[in-house]
Every structure is written in C-alpha cells, then in structure tokens.
Recover the amino acids of this structure.
C-alpha cells in the first residue's frame, strides 16, 4: 500500500480555516501529512488539502509551498473552497467565481469556464479585512485573489477556480458565524465540489501537455522566466481547447520570449472574438 507521501495527486484544494477543511477530510478520507510543518495538510492518493490560515499573504504562501512540493504534477486541478459574505444571498448558498477583484490593488482576474458549471456564478471581491457593510453586490472573502494569482503560475487557468459558500449577509452578519455552522455549510455543498471536480477532470483530459520537443525547443531558444513559461503553457493549452489541435510554433516568427507570448495572446484573443 502506498504511503500518502508517495502518491501523485491531481487535485489540490486550499481552504483558510480548519472548520472549512473538516468535511472534506471526512468525506475524502484524507490523512494528515505529519511531515509538513509549514501548513496543515491532508492527503490521499489523488488529493491534497491545505489549510492556509486567513488572508492573502497566508493563502499565496500556502499555494506556492504546496505546489512546490509536487513539481512533477502536470496540469493540477486547483480549487479555493471556503465561506464568504454577500449582501443578500441566502446562507449556505454556493457560487463559483466568474470574476475576482482585489480590493487593495484593483486588479481583476477572470477564471475561465469552458465547461458546464455546477452552480450559479458570481463576481467576487477579496478584502484585506472582514467587512460587514455589504455595500455592493460582490461576494466578499479574504483569500481568492491571492489564490488565483498564485495558482495560475502552476496550472492552466481553465483548471483554477474559487468556490464559495455564503456564511453571512446583511440579515445575519459575521458575528453570528460559528465553526460548526461553517462545517455544516461546506458539508452541505460537497456534491457541488464533486460535480465541479468531475467537470475539471474531463477538461483536464482534453488539455494536452504541450508537445515536449516543441515546447522544449522554444524554451531553449528564448529565455523564459518561470512566470512566462507557465503563461506559455497556459496559452498553448487554451489554443488546443479552442481548436482541437496544437498551435504550430514553428510558424510564429518571434524575436524573444515576450514577443512570442504577445503573439500567442493575440492569436487566442482573435480566435475568441470570432467564436
């Protein structure tokens, strides 16, 4: 029987709080990895669940640390699961982020949804501090923007998502939240988590890892930063999703890595415009 540390997981879930992790630990029969000290981590053969702690800095560190420990996993499924607030959505309702806004920087991220989503979608705003004003229509949390910005460096953006369960609203503010309530809300939405993972697994099967020789040839031809190398892979995956075939890199006359990325982004944008 394999030790959990010898497994090759494909699913990585990140939560901020232990009470958010509890239902998944039980349902997926995850075991705590006692060899990892930086973050509380649970695993089975296919999945890794990391508890980051509250806030953007903690989440970004947890994602980078966890995925650095699994450098050989190609195109992992990356999910941020947790509770969030909203002005009037019912407690326990579940939404998938279709836009993520960082309230501090103003940066916006747009998760790709080329699959049948298992629940409603909604725009999400990440705050540095909890906010009970509910002054706009956004879902509000404290980790999603940092999760997404970090996670897309390690996988294709189509496989990176944030699933939120409403824990507070104008009628039932933050002060009413209990750990048991959070656990129950997450537990009640595990079927949505399961459906999302099925959809992402099917999508992952369609996304082929770029041809080794072509990709290595380009990587050796130009100097790519780690970030640009990940962006290259994401663009190649997106092209394959839209066209069913790989892009012919030999036909792209690029001067350097930045130029190649720009030309690929233009090709993808043009294709999306005409779809």
């Amino acid at each position: 029987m394999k030790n959990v540390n010898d497994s090759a997981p494909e699913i990585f879930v990140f939560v901020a709080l232990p009470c958010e992790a509890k239902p998944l630990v039980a349902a997926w029969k995850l075991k705590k990895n006692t060899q990892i000290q930086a973050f509380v981590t649970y695993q089975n053969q296919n999945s890794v669940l990391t508890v980051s702690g509250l806030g953007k800095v903690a989440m970004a560190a947890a994602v980078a640390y966890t995925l650095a420990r699994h450098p050989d996993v190609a195109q992992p499924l990356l999910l941020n699961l947790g509770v969030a607030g909203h002005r009037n959505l019912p407690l326990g309702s579940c939404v998938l982020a279709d836009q993520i806004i960082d309230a501090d920087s103003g940066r916006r991220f747009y998760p790709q949804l080329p699959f049948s989503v298992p629940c409603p979608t909604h725009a999400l705003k990440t705050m540095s501090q909890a906010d009970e004003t509910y002054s706009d229509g956004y879902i509000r949390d404290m980790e999603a923007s940092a999760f997404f910005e970090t996670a897309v460096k390690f996988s294709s953006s189509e496989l990176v998502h944030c699933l939120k369960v409403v824990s507070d609203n104008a009628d039932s503010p933050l002060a009413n939240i209990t750990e048991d309530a959070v656990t129950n809300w997450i537990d009640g939405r595990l079927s949505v988590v399961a459906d999302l993972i099925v959809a992402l697994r099917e999508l992952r099967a369609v996304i082929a890892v770029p041809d080794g020789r072509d990709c290595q040839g380009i990587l050796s031809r130009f100097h790519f930063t780690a970030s640009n190398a990940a962006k290259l892979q994401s663009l190649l995956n997106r092209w394959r999703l839209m066209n069913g075939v790989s892009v012919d890199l030999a036909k792209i006359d690029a001067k350097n890595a930045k130029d190649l990325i720009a030309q690929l982004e233009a090709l993808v944008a043009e294709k999306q415009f005409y779809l």
Notes: The chain has eight helices and ten strands.
